[in-house]
Amino acid sequence: MLKFIKKSPFGFIFGAAAIVLLVSPEAREEARKAMVKGTAAVLNFVDQIKNSSCLTSQNPPELLGAPTEQVNEQPPE
Q1: Residues whose CB falls within 8 Å of the CB of residue 51, separated by 6 or more in sequence, listed in order
Q2: Per the confidence metrics, is the pTM higher than 0.85?
Q3: How many Å apart are CA 49 and CA 35, to the nearest integer?
Q4: Residue 10 half-sphere exposure, CB side, CA atoms within 13 Å?
């Protein structure tokens, strides 16, 4: 496990971040705030995607920009 930390710059960054979070209560508080904001952003994005897909399936064709046609008329015999 220590070989990964020595060989990769990401290992050093993650290790340093873990130490800072262990030692500093302020850093933990700020990290928690950032995680809450990130989670809220992801959930809002997912909701927007769901709402846009629901709206496109529920909208009549004229609202989507498709040409409108009369379907109620009987075809000539």
Answers
A1: none
A2: no
A3: 21
A4: 1
Which amino acid makes up residue 34?
A
Predicted confidence (pLDDT) per residue in 41-60, tens digit? 999 999 988 888 766 655 55
For residue 1, give both structure tokens: 């496990």
pLDDT band at 7 (very low <50, low <70, confident <90, very high): confident
Q: Which amino acid, one-letter code, is at 26?
A: E
65/35 Cα distance (integer angstroms)? 40
Region of residue 11 (left: phi > 0; alpha: psi -120 to 50; beta: else)? alpha
Domain boundaries, the chain: 25-56
